[in-house]
Amino acid sequence: MNARTTLPALVLLSVLVGAVALAGGLAAGTATAQTANATADVSVDDQSGAESVVVASATLPDGGFVVVLNASGGVVGSSEYLEAGSHEDVTVEVSPELARSQVVIGQVYANNGSQTFDAAADPVYTNDNGQPIGDTAYVTVETTETATATATPTATATESADSTTESAASATETTGPGFGAVAALVALAGAALLARR
């Protein structure tokens, strides 16, 4: 090979090596960017129950907690510490129990290192706009049967009282106020008077 053909071959080889290196770098850069941009997410479905809320799914890139808030924004429960990654059907106990049907909010919080939820210290995961990542759901609280059970004895007691009143009225009408005894005394007194004459 002479210098005229060697130089273009070296340039071509350099271009190919550079292209391969660039493609590899871009691929590595894309994977790194995807990892860095992994976002938190949470999903809560409508459900029923007063003691707990089941969070359908939660993604916590750096680990943390799933937290349930009431419609006013007050924390009513949090999960145990969850490792980084995705989780499904996370049950969060609420305290106090939900007293009525209402909207709740599920949010995901990062951990400050203690692995125990602290609303003042643990930061909430946020989206690109700086808004907390959360999802709302309607929780139906079933009415208890205590009210029905209480109403039934009251109605029965009223019916019993009515029955007693009717029985007393019947007894009064049948015997009258001493009618039988008075009539017998009058008859005896009348007979005695007739006997003396």
From TrEMBL:
Domain annotation PGF-CTERM archaeal protein-sorting signal: ranges: 177-197
Task: List every stretch annotated Disordered.
Answer: 147-175
* GO cellular component terms given for this protein: plasma membrane; S-layer
UniProt name for this protein:
PGF-CTERM sorting domain-containing protein
Give me the segments passing through the membrane.
176-195
Ordered alphabetically, the record's keywords are:
Membrane, Signal, Transmembrane, Transmembrane helix
Entry's InterPro entries? PGF_CTERM, Slg1/2_DUF7282
Q: Which residues form a coiled coil?
A: none
**Where in the numbering of this chain does the DUF7282 domain appear?**
40-140
